[in-house]
Each structure stands twice: as C-alpha cells, then as structure tokens.
Specification:
The complex is a heterodimer of chains A (245) and B (207). With 245 residues, chain A is α+β, with helices and mostly antiparallel strands. Chain A has eleven helices and four strands; from the N terminus they run αααβαβαββαααααα. In chain B, helix 4 packs antiparallel against helix 5, helix 5 packs across helix 7 and helix 6 crosses helix 7. Classes of the chains: A alpha+beta (245), B alpha+beta (207). Chain A: GO terms for molecular function: glutathione transferase activity.
C-alpha cells in the first residue's frame, strides 16, 4: 500500500499546492478518457431501433439475449417514425446504433453481434453455411409472405387461396431442406455442434407459425423439435418469458 | 490451398461476383458453367436445387451472398473491421431486396413480349432502381466518394454492384445516369487490372 501511495497521483491532491492539484485533475481526467475509450472497445453501447413489435426486430433482440450482451431496446412510435426515418441509412428499421453509428438490415445486425460472441459457427465454412441457410429462409419468406401477410390482415386478397397458391408450396419447398440439414448435421442444431444465429432465426419463425396457424408444420416434427430445443436454451428461454412484445 | 469449383449458369447474374473474387485473388478454380439444357440433370446435386454453388474441396456451399462473403473473407475483400463487414453485408442485403423487386422485369427480359418489357421497365425497374441506387449514391458520397462503398479499400459489394450495372445497361441504357458517384465507383472497379483482364476475355452472355 505504501508503493501505491508513493506512485499514485493521490499524494499530489493532499500534500501539494494549487498547481499540483490541477496536475492531479488533469491526470485523473486523462485516465477517465482513456478508460472510456477502452470500455467502448470492449463494451460498446448498443441501441436497437425498431417499432414496438417483434417483427424484424425480434431476431436481433434474441441474438443479444442469447449472447448475454446488454442493449437498449428503443421502440419507435408510428408518430416518431417519419422523422427518425430520415436519420436511418436506408429509410428502414431495424437499425443498430453502435456508439452513435448505424448499421441497417436485420441479418447484418444479427451476424455482427453473433460473430463477435461465438454464435456464427466455429469455422469460416460453418459461418458461410449459417449465412446460406438464413438466405434460404429469406427466399422462403419472400414467397410465404404472399399468404402470411394476408392472414395477418395486411393487404387485400383471399387468404385461403393464398394459402394454397403460396403458403403451402413455399413451406413444402423450404422445410424439407431444414429437415435434411438437421439430419445431416446430427447435433440438434442446424450448423456445427452449437447454436448459431440461424437456429434462432428459424426457431423464431417456426414458433410464430405454430402460434398463429396451429398444425401448419405437422408434417415436419423435426423442425418443431428444433424450435423447442433452441427455445429451451436458458438465456433465450428467459428472454421469451420476459420480452416486451 | 483448397480446390474451388464455382457452379453457375452461363451468365454473370448472381455468380459473377464470386468468379471475380477468385480472379482478383489469382486463385485457380473450375468455372463450371451449366447450360439450360443440362440444368435439370445437375439440379439434384445442388443442396438447395439452385445456383450458384461453391464447392470447396468437394463440399458444397449454396447461396450467392454466402459464397461471396466466404470468398471475400478468405481473400481480404470483406471490410477491415466487424463494423465495416456489417456495412458490406447490409448493402448486400439491400441489393437482395432490390433484386427480388426486379424479378418480374428480369423474367420479361427473357421473353419476346416487347410491350411487357416496356411496361415493366417503367412500372417495376425504374422505381426499384431509383430507390436502391439513391441509397447507393448517398452511401458512396457519405463514404467520401473514394471509389468504395465501405471503408477505403475494395470489398465484394463494390464488385457485385459494378458487375450488376454492366448487365443492367445492356437492357436499360443509361439506367444509372442519375447516380454519378456510383458510376465513377463502377469505372474504378472494372478498371482494376486483374478485373479488366478477366472482363475482356470472359464469355459474352445475355445476362
């Protein structure tokens, strides 16, 4: 403790004149600024901006939860959106604000957090397969939404006809690929032997489907089992129990 | 070094970015071009029954953006920091959204109905191009008009967008006239010696 006393700036504070007290404060401030820079590098400040719904914001939120990384969930209201829209890079949400700078696009956000916290596969090839499955889900969603959005009450059209024309074919093109991948991979997860952000993406979509169209995935029990396995992971389970929407 | 084979159709489309990444890095690869006639026979050997597929030591990897990102990461064209990589990814995803809006127009271009082509160019292509390329123009400027969309060096999104514009202009001349910073970025990219060399000798294809 004498070593600390002799080498620290504190003696200056107590055993000195005004000039030395100023030196102390300058040194103290420098330390604080350096510490802030260090903290920003190891613990950046994250704010996720989206509407106050699950939608495209939910998967990024779940990645944060699974990685156990703190973030501020900013719910943008319909009234505030037109003004905020102008500040976003692509006029869209979600956007992730990282120490004041934006990253748009939900998959880019998910991958950015996931890859820094061990949730994007263990090798570059695994990471690429995580990406490939996620993009395949996106292709599925582009077809499927022609039925799903109608079902949720957006747009005009015959929901039952859309289910037959778009919903069922999209389902039956995509989910066999998921089953094939689960069987080939053999770990219970989609890629490698640990959970990745595409497990979170698919499980979220599956839970949503099961919730709103019960039995829709009856012919894909492996897919439902995967969803249950992913959602049983403690950090994610806790999020699902306490999430705001 | 692993052996690479890139399987795609006889065209630029969604496969050319990956061919160019391999050429730029002077990495030998098999440029497996599949004709429309042969495609039905080859389809089942592809993981998602789609192209492109990259084979790395015989192991397949599907989905054009996943392939481009994988190769870019191998060869140093994916941004210098996680934040930059995220921005390259975000622009890639925005391209994917734009591309899916353009599909009806692309389908018409493959057919004979000239009226339909004109109608879709006006109703589908123009708005989609204006929306996406306005974003790209702003991005190129915000990045410092330095010839790149992200950071200060070449990334796969510079390559992908530049190539796509070359195809677009074949069918829609001056499609990007309102986006001078992006046009300059494209000129800089396609003039890179190794790319220029490849572009001059590659097969000429409809897309």
């Amino acid at each position: 403790s004498t070593f600390l006393f002799k080498t620290s700036p504190f003696p200056l504070l107590f055993f000195s004149n005004f000039h030395s007290k100023v030196s102390f404060f300058v040194e103290f401030l420098t330390i604080c600024i350096k510490l802030r820079g260090y903290c920003r590098r190891i613990m950046p400040e994250y704010k996720l901006h989206y509407f106050g719904i699950r939608g495209l914001g939910e998967v990024p939120r779940q990645i944060f939860a699974l990685a156990e990384v703190k973030f501020e969930n900013v719910a943008v209201t319909r009234e505030d959106w037109p003004e905020f829209k102008k500040k976003t890079p692509f006029g869209q949400m979600p956007v992730l604000e990282v120490d004041g700078k934006f990253i748009p696009q939900s998959f880019a956000i998910a991958r950015f957090i996931a890859s820094q916290h061990g949730l994007a596969g263990k090798t570059p090839f695994e990471a690429a397969w995580v990406d490939a499955l996620a993009d395949q889900w996106k292709d599925f969603q582009n077809d499927f939404k022609k039925f799903w959005y109608l079902k949720l009450g957006f747009g005009e059209g015959d929901v039952d006809a859309a289910k037959v024309e778009h919903g069922i074919p999209a389902r039956d093109k995509f989910f066999p690929l998921v089953v094939k991948q689960l069987k080939k991979n053999g770990s219970g997860f989609l890629v490698g032997d640990a959970v990745t952000w595409v497990d979170v993406l698919v499980a979220n979509a599956v839970a949503d489907l099961e919730e709103k169209e019960a039995g829709f995935l009856a012919e894909y029990p492996e897919v439902v089992a995967h969803q249950k396995k992913v959602h049983a992971i403690p950090a994610l389970k806790k999020w699902l129990e306490t999430r705001p929407y | 070094m692993p052996t690479y084979k890139l399987s795609y159709f006889e065209g630029q489309g969604l496969g050319e970015v990956s061919r160019q990444l391999l050429h730029l890095s002077e990495t030998p690869f098999e440029d497996d071009r599949i004709s429309q006639e042969d495609w039905p026979k080859r389809k089942d050997s592809m993981p998602f029954a789609k192209l492109p597929v990259l084979f790395v030591d015989g192991k397949p990897l599907p989905q054009s953006l996943a392939i481009a990102r994988y190769l870019a990461n191998q060869f140093g064209f994916a941004g210098k920091t996680p934040f930059e990589s995220a921005w390259v990814d975000a622009l890639g995803d925005q391209f994917k959204d734009y591309f899916s809006e353009m599909v009806p127009y692309f389908m018409a271009l493959g057919g004979d109905n000239e009226e339909e082509k004109s109608r879709l160019q006006l109703e589908v292509a123009e708005p989609a191009i204006n929306k996406f390329f306005s974003i790209l123009e702003k991005r190129a400027k915000d990045n410092g008009s330095n010839g790149h969309f992200v950071g200060d060096s070449l990334t796969w999104i510079d390559i992908h967008i530049s190539d796509h514009m070359g195809v677009g202009e074949k069918y829609f001349p001056n499609a990007y006239a309102a986006f001078p910073t992006v046009l300059a970025l494209r000129e800089g990219t396609v003039s890179l010696p190794k790319l220029k060399e490849w572009i001059e000798k590659r097969p000429v294809t409809p897309y």
